[in-house]
Amino acid sequence: MWVYGLIEPARARLIKSAYFWLRHIDDIADGDKFLPQGYKSKQVFLQSKRELAKRLLSGEDGMKIKQPEG
User: Which of 6, 16, 24, 26 lies in the 20 to 30 Å Cα band around 48?
Assistant: First the structure.
C-alpha cells in the first residue's frame, strides 16, 4: 500500500478511507465497538450502511463513484 500511495496518492487515500470505514462498521457488527446512538439495533445500523453504500455506488445524492473495470 505504501508504494501504491506514491504512484497514485489520491486512489490510495480513497482505498485507505474505505478500509477504515468498513473496519469501523465491522467492529460495531462484531460487538467490538458500541452501537452509535440513534440506532435501535445492529440490524438497523447495518441496513442503513448498506443503503448508503448502494446510494454512493448508484450515483444518488450526486455522488458517483467510478467502479473499476474488469
Answer: 16
The Cβ of residue 38 has, within 10 Å, a number of other Cβ atoms equal to 8
Question: What are the residues whose beta carbons fall under 8 Å from the beta carbon of 49, sequence distance 6 or more?
Answer: 25
User: pTM of the entire structure?
Assistant: 0.70
- Give the contacts of 67 (CB within 8 A, at least 6 positions apart): 57
In the chain, domain spans: 20-60
Dihedral (CA of 17, 18, 19, 20) sign: positive
Model confidence at 56: pLDDT above 60: yes
pLDDT of residue 70: 45
Distances in Å between the Cα of 4 and the Cα atoms of 21, 24, 42 are 20, 23, 35
Could you tell me the pLDDT band of residue 67, with boundaries at 50, 70 and 90? low
